């Protein structure tokens, strides 16, 4: 099966069982300031798993795009990727174990066609001290499912992963593990959960590729072994308990199912190949790279570089489509790290590029767009294509300018036998080397890097930058004069106009407003054309003439997010917020999280003149700045 075929087969399987299909959420979480990226299918649904009613009902299914930055350094083996699709189905107080486990087993064996003799499963061993029993029910359901396929499934007790390396398989097919492997809660193991926190046991499914065990991982092999023989392809979480004040657990009044299965991993199992990079579309990217580099993917000297480029470009393509641009902070820093790491490995393969049309990274992104745009419409269209192409090429060019000098500097530093924190900081601040790249290059040469000292240099740099910024600008509004307030309302109109003209990827990255002018920093990768600037001015002036009311409303943060209210990038908001809409709330031209002050009607802006853009310029890679004012005609 192709990814498209497998994804659709899964969704249709559960639609036939009365599940509503819901769209994938953005890679950038919209209402979760605790994490930079959406890393699981469950993450956007936490409020509903905790009791909130979902508008689509109690049975849900989708394929969620996910990114896990913590896996960047793991990419290079045959199974780790940073970006992946998580197939998911959920029961919100509806069905439970006796429906979920048979359905997933049926999907794997009867729809995908996996050999049930190559499937191995796990269950929770229990925690009697906390009042959580062994999950005998799941084990019994699995035993019956295997028996129906003519397979005797013995149950083996393991406990921890280290116990598994000591005890081995012992002829088992169903394995009991402890809470580190077969328990889910937001706080981790039962002992770490606060009172009132829900959680529950889970049951994983592993596919056995039958490869030889590598003893460097442990004396014996077991399903959770890292040797590569077994690959986890799905996990059903049964959220059925809540922790009490005395540390024990009680059953939740409504019990939920949260299932997640890696699309790429199920595809690898279906093809009976443990290498996820042998599945398309990753395989197509690898083939392109091999053709242009004139090197073989199967040559162990180059395999890791092929995998890193394919994974990182795919992840970067989806990030840019969701509005992320390369920068030195937060999501933008991760994107920059991916692209520069991919560019470094492309250089090691001899893939030097003169322009965007020759760029192996850009060509890899185009393959990603073509392969995924049917399932993820944010990748389709000329605007998305040009933005993705432009951001990748711009970052590649910028990095190429410093790479040669940076590598010379790195080799000079490496010749001293270790890399100090100050030297690592110089590589970052002067040569654009992400710290993780310095660590990777050092690791390849067997050198130590003083990470603690590097972090201290970064902290000192941040404090100096913050102080300088505070001296240069006061954040937000300089004062509350009439002219400043009018320009504050114009700022809201401008942000919306930029999104209309340039695209929905435009997000505010900073602002400063005085009585003389407004300044907005916003995410966009290219210089605006004169025509685009004139169109933005026209939209703002049109809304001024329309005399739209400017309305302040207090509401729950969740309601503001549902309405699509714009928020300042990186800002954290309380549970109840102030929102300003230009136009009535139900049909507003613009809605933003904002504390004010504003004019009461956009017509008041006309008292200061017409809106004009004075200057548009680059601030950093992927961030532009506009200075504008209201001038008398």
UniProtKB/TrEMBL annotation:
- What are its GO biological-process terms? alanyl-tRNA aminoacylation
Q: What class of enzyme is it?
A: ligase
Give EC number(s), comma-separated.
Answer: 6.1.1.7
> Does the keyword field hold Isomerase?
no
Please provide, in alphabetical order, the Gene Ontology terms of the cellular component aspect for this entry: cytosol
Task: Alphabetically list the UniProt keywords.
Answer: Aminoacyl-tRNA synthetase, ATP-binding, Ligase, Nucleotide-binding, Protein biosynthesis, RNA-binding, tRNA-binding
GO MF, one term, reads: aminoacyl-tRNA deacylase activity
Start and end of every Alanyl-transfer RNA synthetases family profile domain?
1-633
InterPro entries per record: aa-tRNA-synth_II/BPL/LPL (IPR045864), Ala-tRNA-lgiase_IIc (IPR002318), Ala-tRNA-ligase_IIc_anticod-bd (IPR018162), Ala-tRNA-synth_IIc_core (IPR018165), Ala-tRNA-synth_IIc_N (IPR018164), Ala-tRNA_ligase (IPR050058), Thr/Ala-tRNA-synth_IIc_edit (IPR018163), tRNA_SAD (IPR012947)
Protein family according to the UniProt entry = Belongs to the class-II aminoacyl-tRNA synthetase family.
What is the name of this protein? alanine--tRNA ligase
């Amino acid at each position: 099966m192709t990814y498209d075929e497998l994804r659709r087969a899964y969704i249709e399987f559960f639609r036939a069982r009365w599940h509503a299909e819901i769209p994938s959420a953005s890679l950038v979480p919209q209402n979760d300031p605790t994490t930079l990226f959406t890393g699981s299918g469950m993450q956007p649904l936490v409020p509903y798993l905790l009791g909130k009613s979902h508008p689509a009902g109690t049975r849900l299914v989708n394929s969620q795009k996910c990114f896990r930055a913590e896996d960047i350094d793991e990419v290079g083996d045959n199974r780790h990727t940073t970006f992946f699709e998580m197939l998911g189905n959920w029961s919100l107080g509806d069905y439970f174990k006796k429906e979920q486990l048979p359905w997933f087993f049926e999907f794997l064996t009867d729809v995908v066609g996996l050999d049930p003799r190559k499937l191995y499963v796990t269950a929770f061993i229990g925690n009697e001290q906390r009042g959580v029993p062994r999950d005998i029910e799941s084990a019994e359901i699995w035993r019956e499912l295997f028996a129906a396929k003519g397979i005797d499934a013995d149950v083996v007790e393991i406990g921890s992963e280290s116990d598994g390396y000591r005890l081995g398989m012992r002829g088992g097919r169903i394995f009991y593990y402890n809470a580190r492997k077969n328990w889910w809660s937001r706080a981790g193991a039962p002992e770490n959960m606060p009172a009132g926190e829900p959680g529950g046991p889970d049951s994983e499914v592993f596919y056995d590729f039958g490869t030889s065990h590598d003893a460097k991982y442990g004396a014996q092999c077991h399903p959770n072994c890292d040797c590569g023989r077994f690959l986890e392809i799905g996990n059903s979480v049964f959220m059925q308990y809540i922790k009490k004040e005395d540390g024990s657990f009680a059953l939740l009044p409504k019990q939920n199912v949260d299932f997640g299965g890696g699309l790429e991993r199920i595809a690898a199992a279906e093809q009976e190949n443990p290498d996820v990079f042998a599945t398309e579309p990753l395989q197509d990217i690898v083939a392109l790279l091999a053709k242009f580099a004139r090197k073989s993917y199967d040559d162990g000297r180059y395999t890791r570089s092929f995998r890193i480029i394919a994974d990182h470009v795919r992840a970067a393509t989806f990030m840019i489509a969701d509005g992320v641009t390369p920068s030195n902070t937060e999501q933008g820093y991760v994107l920059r790290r991916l692209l520069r790491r991919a560019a470094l490995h492309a250089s090691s393969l001899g893939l030097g590029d003169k322009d965007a049309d020759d760029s192996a990274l850009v060509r890899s992104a185009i393959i990603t767009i073509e392969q995924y745009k049917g399932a993820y419409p944010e990748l389709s269209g000329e605007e998305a294509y040009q933005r993705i192409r432009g951001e990748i090429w711009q970052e590649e060019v910028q990095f190429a300018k410093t790479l040669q000098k940076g590598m010379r500097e790195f080799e000079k530093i490496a010749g001293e036998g270790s890399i100090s924190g100050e030297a690592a900081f110089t590589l970052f601040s002067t040569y654009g080397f992400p710290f993780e790249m310095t660590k990777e290059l050092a690791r390849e040469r067997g050198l130590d890097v003083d990470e603690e000292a590097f972090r201290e240099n970064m902290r000192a740099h941040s404090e100096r930058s913050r102080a300088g910024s505070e001296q240069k600008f006061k954040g937000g509004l300089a004062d509350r004069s009439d002219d400043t307030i009018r320009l504050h309302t114009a700022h809201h109109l401008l942000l919306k106009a930029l999104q209309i003209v340039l695209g929905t990827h435009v997000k505010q990255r900073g602002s400063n407003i005085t009585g003389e002018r407004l300044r907005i920093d916003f995410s966009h990768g290219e210089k605006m054309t004169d025509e685009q600037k004139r169109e933005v001015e026209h939209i703002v002036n049109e809304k001024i003439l329309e005399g739209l009311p400017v309305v302040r409303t207090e509401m729950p943060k969740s309601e503001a997010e549902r309405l699509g209210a714009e928020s300042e990038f990186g800002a954290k908001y309380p549970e109840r917020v102030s929102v300003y809409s230009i136009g009535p709330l139900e049909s507003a031209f613009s809605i933003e999280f904002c504390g004010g002050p504003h004019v009461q009607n956009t017509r008041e802006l006309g008292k200061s003149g017409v809106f004009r853009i004075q200057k548009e310029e680059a601030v950093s890679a992927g961030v532009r700045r506009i200075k504008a004012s209201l001038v008398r005609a």
